[in-house]
Amino acid sequence: MSNNDIMKKLRVAMKFTDDDIIKVLALVNFRITKAEIGAIFRADDHPNFKPCGDQILRNFLNGLIIYKRGPREPKPKAENKGE
Q1: What is the reported pLDDT for 75?
Q2: How many CB atoms lie under 10 A from the CB of residue 20?
Q3: Whole-angstrom Cα distance, residue 49 to residue 8?
Q4: Which phi and psi (to 5°) does residue 72 adopt?
Q5: Are 14 and 53 in contact (CB under 8 A)?
Q6: Which residues contact 19 (CB under 8 A, 6 or more apart)?
Q7: Alpha carbon 83 to chain centroid distance?
Q8: What pLDDT shows up at residue 77?
């Protein structure tokens, strides 16, 4: 299964539009155009097909975590035990 297939399945499962995918990627400061997203979702034999790289998929998954759970809360600083 390719990264493109994973992106297609996630798009259908989450009922995302191109704009939703752009917003999710923006949560992790990753910019992508609608044309690039369209190229990822094209058929393999289409002349404008673009393979989905690991970086796009990784950033989409990280953005999806923030989208669903919210941003990570900062850990409280450890107090000095010796004082």
Answers
A1: 79
A2: 13
A3: 13
A4: -70, 135
A5: no
A6: 34
A7: 45
A8: 78
Query: CA-CA distance, 37 to 33, in Å (whole number)?
Result: 6
The predicted model scores a pTM of 0.82
Residue type, 31: R
AA letter at 75? K
- DSSP letters, 18-74, are HHHHHHHHHTTT----HHHHHHHTS-TTSTT--PPPHHHHHHHHHHHHHHHH-SPPP
Residues of the chain scoring pLDDT < 70 = 79-83
Q: What phi and psi values does residue 24 have, to the nearest 5 degrees?
A: -65, -45
Question: Is residue 8 classed as helix, strand or coil in its secondary structure?
Answer: helix
Contact 14, 60 (CB under 8 A): no
Provide the 3-class DSSP secondary structure of residue 17. coil
